[in-house]
Design brief:
disordered C terminus; translation elongation factor activity; globular; Elongation factor G; protein biosynthesis; alpha+beta; 6-stranded antiparallel beta sheet; binds guanosine-5'-diphosphate
Length: 409
């Protein structure tokens, strides 16, 4: 895997209050990305619709701690972050492994206490987020209210990137404020791409105002956007996206999209936004580790050519086999390699490396810095332990995730 491939990795979690739609959104993500259904096999929309409930009965809900899926040229590693309040410690552990997150709110219930808690944890670890206001089809859906709650209760600066077309049961699409197009969602067309149309006349004024608001928010992160904004010039959408990306990665703004996951509306744009606005592992600044003997700190970047440093973030028993989920921060992890757990002074053997998908595990010969894989073969390693090159021991425990920097690439 090359550096440009790593720039296409997104290690993300989905955070929300219970019932906001995390399970439904996750299922749709795996579906649209072809993980639970090979795109193109089913041409008849109804067949696709029939397929979904069946799959749900069989329980496609992911059980893996990190499930990998593809979205265009990107690989998205979805890391399971338990949303239940009892699992706060687990959430914190997972958050350390995430580079970004999708935060889901219900358009009816809005910001709830638990969303507040998880949001603050994400703030603490400086995890950039894109937000989905879900359940736009429900009676009483009020995304404006949710935006105000985000400002007041989460002290966040949300940036609404879509306007709804239709309300409640009539919610049928959105106006994409950045691309200035209307996105029409059909409940039966479950493809990877969504239908885009010119913006109808009656939405033009609302679009103009919304675009002005988005430009104003983006102006803080790009001088060109700022001068265009101040002088009343139109801002090119690519420039706008770049500025929004900078703001999002620095956790100063939070792009907000609208949808109804249950009605198959609005999840594909969330995946596009994940790829567009959330950081890749290369966007993270140097990590810091500690030498086990001297205690001396060493900083290092996400580089496959450096010695191996990885963090075990979840240990699970699956089919009688112990699987250790690791996030690799530098170097390469190879099948058959011997690695060191410096915290326990234990040597470990990487017997098998797996990329976990919704329905299958894919054995891979090696994984590189930036990636997330499951390892079979570790005996002594527990959640939170470091695994590293035995020749270059370094401990990652207690590593704070520093503020991400923005790559312009
Ligand atoms: P989780 O607890 O966050 O994982 O939420 P679920 O995905 O299990 O959803 C909770 C409930 O809300 C379920 O009954 C879903 O069918 C329903 N639900 C999820 N998304 C939507 C939506 O967009 N619209 C409506 N009306 N219901 C939804």
């Amino acid at each position: 895997m090359t550096a440009s491939d790593v720039s296409h990795i997104r290690n993300i979690g989905i955070i929300s209050h219970i019932d906001a739609g995390k399970t439904t959104v996750t299922e749709r993500i795996l579906f649209y990305s072809g993980e639970t259904h090979k795109m193109g096999e089913v041409h008849d929309g109804q067949a696709v619709m029939d397929w979904m409930p069946q799959e749900q009965e069989r329980g496609i809900t992911i059980t893996a701690s990190a499930t990998s899926c593809r979205w265009g040229e990107h690989r998205i590693n979805l890391i399971d972050t338990p949303g239940h309040i009892d699992f706060t410690i687990e959430v914190e552990r997972s958050v350390r492994v995430l580079d970004g997150a999708v935060a889901i709110f219900s358009a009816v219930e809005g910001v709830q206490p638990q969303s507040e808690l998880v949001w603050r944890q994400a703030d603490r670890y400086r995890v950039p987020r894109v937000c989905l206001i879900n359940k736009m089809d429900r009676l009483g859906a009020d995304h404006e209210h949710v935006l105000r709650q985000m400002e007041q209760r989460l002290a966040a600066r949300p940036v609404l990137l879509q306007l709804p077309v239709g309300t409640e049961g009539g919610f049928s699409g959105v106006i994409d404020v950045v691309e200035e197009e209307m996105i029409v969602f059909s409940e039966t067309d479950l493809g990877r791409t969504v239908e885009r149309k010119p913006v109808p006349l009656q939405h033009e004024e609302a679009l103009r105002n919304a675009r002005l608001a988005v430009t104003e928010a983006a102006a803080d992160f790009d001088d060109q956007v700022m001068s265009d904004f101040l002088e009343g010039r139109a801002v090119e959408s690519e420039r706008l996206k770049l500025a929004l990306r900078r703001g999002t990665i620095s956790c100063r703004i939070f792009p907000v999209l609208l949808g109804s996951a249950l009605r198959n509306k609005g999840v594909q744009p969330v995946l596009d936004a994940v790829c567009l606005f959330l950081p890749s592992p290369l966007d993270l600044p140097a990590m810091i580790g500690r030498h086990p003997g001297s205690g001396e700190a060493e900083s290092f970047s996400c580089d496959a050519n450096l010695p191996l440093r990885a963090l075990a973030f979840k240990v699970m028993a699956e089919e009688g086999r112990r699987l250790t989920y690791v996030r690799i921060y530098s170097g390469r992890m190879k099948q058959g390699a011997s690695v060191l757990n410096p915290g326990r002074g234990a040597g470990e053997r990487i017997r098998h490396l797996f990329r976990m998908h919704a329905h299958r595990r894919e054995e891979v010969p090696e994984a590189v810095a930036g990636d997330i894989v499951a390892v079979a073969g570790c005996q002594a390693t527990l959640t939170g332990d470091t695994l590293c090159d035995p020749e270059h021991p370094l401990l990652l425990e207690g590593v704070a995730v520093p503020e991400p920097v923005v790559s312009v690439a």
